[in-house]
Backbone:
């Protein structure tokens, strides 16, 4: 029997945060479609969860950095009416500076962290709107705000996810689609092995993937638009967001600000 909650499609589901989302959502009663490159690891996650939860779990091996793989997942999101949730978790990072990092590697990071996430969201959103319900969870990072912390391209890609989420919330809020942007801090996953700084996994400031996802799902249940599991002082985010929204109308000026001295220059020219 299909789940009354529908099916959650999770990218990057073979390990780390994605695998924990798979576990938690299956236990909440969702059927799953698990997406990642490594079919063997996907099968292991799926077999374990089928045995423990009894949910229907499909694996969809795909490399989201390749057009064919990305198109395959887009088609499933567009065409499968049972999908009610998309978790855009797949991503890679780096700790290298612009003087150390390879630009082709950086382009591949943009392709996965930005382009794939965007295309999958564009595939899911119209289908969710047509059915009047759906949830999109996009995994950003605290470095989307603390942009100097790691590699600049990685930070910029996560800033994109945060900004994209704000826009999605504006566009979809009245159409029955929930959009949550999650900003994990340092989390104990293979991310750090790939990014080039494995010791971070055991740092005293590093959160477990289980705690990160559990907090994010509580935030989802509470209706949070942006969830930052490691930020204890919630008022700091509330103030940051209020200031951002307050400054936005103040950009609307046809003349440069007086501090640039262009008004006096124009007067003297006359």
Residues:
């Amino acid at each position: 029997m299909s789940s009354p909650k529908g099916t959650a499609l999770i990218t990057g589901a073979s390990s780390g945060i994605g695998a924990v989302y798979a576990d938690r959502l299956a236990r909440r009663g969702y059927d799953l479609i698990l997406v990642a490159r490594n079919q063997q690891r996907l099968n292991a996650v799926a077999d374990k969860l089928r045995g423990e939860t009894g949910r229907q779990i499909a694996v969809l091996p795909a490399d989201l950095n390749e057009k064919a793989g990305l198109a395959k997942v887009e088609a499933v999101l567009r065409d499968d009416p049972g999908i009610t949730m998309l978790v855009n978790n797949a991503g890679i990072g780096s700790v290298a500076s612009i003087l150390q990092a390879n630009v082709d590697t950086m382009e591949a990071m943009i392709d996965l962290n930005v382009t794939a996430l965007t295309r999958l969201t564009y595939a899911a959103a119209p289908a969710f709107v047509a059915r009047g319900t759906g949830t999109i969870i996009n995994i950003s990072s605290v470095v989307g705000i603390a942009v100097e912390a790691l590699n600049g391209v990685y930070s910029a890609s996560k800033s994109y996810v945060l900004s994209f989420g704000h826009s999605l919330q504006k566009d979809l809020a009245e159409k029955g689609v929930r959009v949550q942007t999650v900003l994990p801090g340092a989390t104990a996953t293979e991310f750090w092995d790939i990014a080039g700084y494995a010791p971070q996994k055991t740092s005293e400031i590093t959160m477990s993937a289980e705690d990160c996802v559990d907090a994010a799902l509580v935030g989802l249940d509470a209706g949070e638009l942006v969830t930052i599991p490691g930020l204890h002082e919630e008022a700091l985010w509330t103030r940051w967001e209020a200031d951002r929204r307050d400054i936005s109308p103040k950009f609307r000026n046809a003349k440069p600000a007086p501090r640039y001295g262009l008004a006096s220059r124009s007067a003297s020219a006359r």
